Amino acid sequence: MHILRKAVALSLIAGLGLAGAVAQAAADPIATRQAIMSSVGAAAGLGGGMMKGEIAYTPAAGKAAITTMRAASLSYGNFFPAGSDHASSDAADAVWNDAEGFAAQLAKFAVAAAAAAEASGKSGPADIDAFKAVFGPVLGTCKSCHETYRKQN
């Protein structure tokens, strides 16, 4: 139970970090997109841990992971202005060289995250199977985007 509380707290803190990052966006879009992706990573870690059975599932934890992904999907693509392609980040050149493809991947992320948020209702998916059904597609969009638009380490 301690691990679950810690995971939910980390996800919520990451979500609050996302809100703070957006407030600083005009000053530093690169730091903002990195902060948003950090919150996405925390939500993916929480959601993936629940899906694997490493973290006990609760509807509140499921809702926190989904809500973080939804918030990121609404803003993330706004923080790749021209000239930010030479920054120290994990964004691959393909983000700028294939802007239409990147926008299409972001649209898939937004659709999947919106569907997950809608299906999760006010309290979150009722059980782990319902969570997997809505969160799995969100993680799938992350994976497909990272294959092309994230630098491979």
From TrEMBL:
A GO biological process held by the record = electron transport chain
Q: Which UniProt keywords apply?
A: Electron transport, Heme, Iron, Metal-binding, Signal, Transport
**Which region is the signal sequence?**
1-25
What's an example of a GO molecular-function annotation for this chain? Answer: electron transfer activity
Work out whether the entry's keyword set contains Signal.
yes
- Annotated heme c binding lies at 142, 145-146
An example Pfam family from this entry, by short name, is Cytochrom_C_2
Gene Ontology cellular-component terms for this entry are:
periplasmic space
**Is-annotated flag, keyword Magnesium?**
no
Modifications the protein undergoes after translation, according to the UniProt entry: Binds 1 heme group per subunit.
Name of this protein: Cytochrome c556
Lineage here is: Bacteria, Pseudomonadati, Pseudomonadota, Alphaproteobacteria, Hyphomicrobiales
